[in-house]
Amino acid sequence: MSSETDISITSAYNELINITAYYRDANKKNIASANLSIEGGGYSDQLNAINQRYTKVINSAVFGVGVFYLTLIAEKTNYESQSILFRVEITHRETLLKLYLNGAEKTSKPSIDIPYGKRITIEIEYLDKDLDAFITGTEVNITGEDIDEILDEDPTSEVYSIGIKSETLDIGTRFLSIIATKGNYESQTIRITINVKRIQTEIALINQNTTVTIEPGENINLTIELKDLDFGGRIKGATVNYTWERGQGTLEDPDGDGIYQALITNTNVPDGVYTITITVYGADEYDFERFKITLNVQSPEENVLLFQIYLGLAIGGVVGLSSYLVAYQKVLKYPKPIRKLRKFRKMLKKKQMPDLEIKTRETLLKEEYEKQLGVLAKILRPKLKGVKVKATEEEKSALEQSMGQGELKDTDVFIDDSQNPDEL
User: What average pLDDT does range 40-67 have in this prediction?
Assistant: First the structure.
């Protein structure tokens, strides 16, 4: 039998240790019917003789986790006794921990986003790694954020679980630690990140689009609802305001059903595009975003055409008046003789002298006389048919020239009885 004392055995807790020994004489022959026993570490038992060898199977659970020294003793009458000391190290059993948050497996990424007001269910599976079996009787503790609780064991579902209200954590990012411990088993720890968010909301127009088109002078009837996207339903009791460049106001919820209304008067608003901004104020747990509506104020086409006509006339009038004022300041404010004189003076300033005909006073008087005589002839011509006239040579010459007639003869004046002497 070996006399070495540096023999070492390592085993996990709750595993079987198989010890086999041979008891031989000096001639290397097995000694039968000997008494072999093991003692130490609070353990003592006899080995069983099987086919000239001695064996014993020991469950490491009898020792617990730690290092133990055992002595194997062999005895038989008339034979020299032998003993051997060996070392036994019992280690914790390897374990696995699986995390579930609200039913979803989150072991590799232990985090969750959750709206304020929703309950968080935390479940833990604590398993024997080698056996892939649930370990009962484990103390699973959760701590952090003023929480120090022990998870409940559910043998049927083979999990440890706890429920936590998000209100106890408040809005923000929170960190919790879970520790699973049991004697002789490897402890497991996992750190959980819980992000408690504000409740998501939506502002929605009822029977309207985000772009509203109206005519000038037409009122705007705003009707919106506040939707709770996380828990469903409408949000009641909020303060809803609107603002735009023409003023501001409040949308009311007269029926208390989460539908808010306001009438925006649109008096004397010109054509154009305007933005109406809706802002909601409510409990801190809600996340409200500003909502914008595009208001398109547009006149009917016939009004636009009429306006364009009026505008064209107004522009034309302004341009005409401006032109007249300019012309008046430069020319028309002077009398006609002065205007002619100013025009003539400007002509004198030019390099080339204009062609001008200067007439004598006698010529001008003669031309004016002939002009007036021609007018008189046009009046008298229809009435002189059948009338004989007697005139001097100068008068005949002038009269012939103005009337375009042939040569007149000296005769007495004969007046047709059909003519009215007064008309002559």
Answer: 93
Residues 30 and 8 sit within 8 Å (Cβ to Cβ): no
Q: Which fold has domain 7-91?
A: Immunoglobulin-like (2.60.40)
**3-state SS class at 369:** helix
Cα–Cα distance measured from residue 396 to residue 410, given in angstroms and rounded to the nearest whole number: 9
> What do you get for the CA distance between the two ends of the chain, in Å?
184
Domain ranges of the chain: 7-91, 95-197, 205-297, 301-356, 363-424
Separation of alpha carbons 164 and 119, rounded Å: 6
> Which amino acid is residue 6, in one-letter code?
D
User: What's the CA gap between 151 and 161, in Å, rounded?
Assistant: 5
C-alpha 90 chain-centroid distance: 62
**Domain 95-197 part of CATH 3.40.50.410:** no
Q: What is the pLDDT of residue 371?
A: 76
Please give the model's pTM, rounded to 2 decimal places: 0.62
Chain-centre distance of CA 7, in angstroms?
A: 73
Q: CB within 8 A of 141, min separation 6: which ones?
A: 148, 149, 150, 151, 178, 179, 180, 181
In CATH terms, are 7-91 and 205-297 the same topology? yes
Residue 132's nearest CA partner among 159, 106, 95 is 95
* Rounded-to-integer distance, Cα 261 and Cα 251, Å: 5
Q: For residue 419, give both structure tokens.
A: 């003519």
The reported pLDDT for the residue numbered 416 is 42
Query: What's phi and psi for 56, nearest 5 deg?
Result: -155, 130
* Crossing angle of the two packed helices 361-380 and 393-403, in degrees rounded to 10: 70
Domain 205-297 CATH assignment equals 2.60.40.10: yes
Give the tens place of pLDDT for each residue, 29-44: 999 999 999 999 899 9
